[in-house]
Amino acid sequence: MRAKIVYFALAAVLAVYFVLVGSRGIMLIEQGTVITVAFGLAVLVLPFIGAWFLYQTTKFARDANRLARELEAEGGLPVDELERTPGGRIDRDSADAVFAKRRSETERAPGDWRSWFRLAVAYHDARDTPRARKAMQRAIALHDGKAVRADAV
Description:
Strand content: under 5%
CATH architecture of the largest domain: Alpha Horseshoe
Radius of gyration: 21 Å
Structural class: mainly alpha
CATH class of the largest domain: Mainly Alpha
Number of helices: 5
Number of strands: 0
Keywords: Membrane, Transmembrane, Transmembrane helix
Transmembrane segments: 7-29, 35-55
Protein name: Tetratricopeptide repeat protein
């Protein structure tokens, strides 16, 4: 719940920033000189890029949460079997062992979104965020019936 509050607070701050940047871009365009119009147009691009990124990130989080709820209803969410250090951090060897198990599961069933979801969690636990995101994107695509490339796990 705390993560959602932080996410929405940051999204609201970004939205305010987009409005402020957009208003500065419009002010520059209203100046009417070639240079200020060019800068104003360049400045106006930033809020659009930011809004697109915010939309994509929000959509990804919603889709991943939708899959998590469905997997939880089926009783298929991965069980936390990771060992922790005394400080509470995930033990690297434990994360690697769970990852190997999840990777093997995904190799046996490459068309199953559930195995890709669990692999994404294992990547995340192993602190490999880029691969975790790609695995979750594949899980979402498979769940939604979209075409996916036949890449290696």
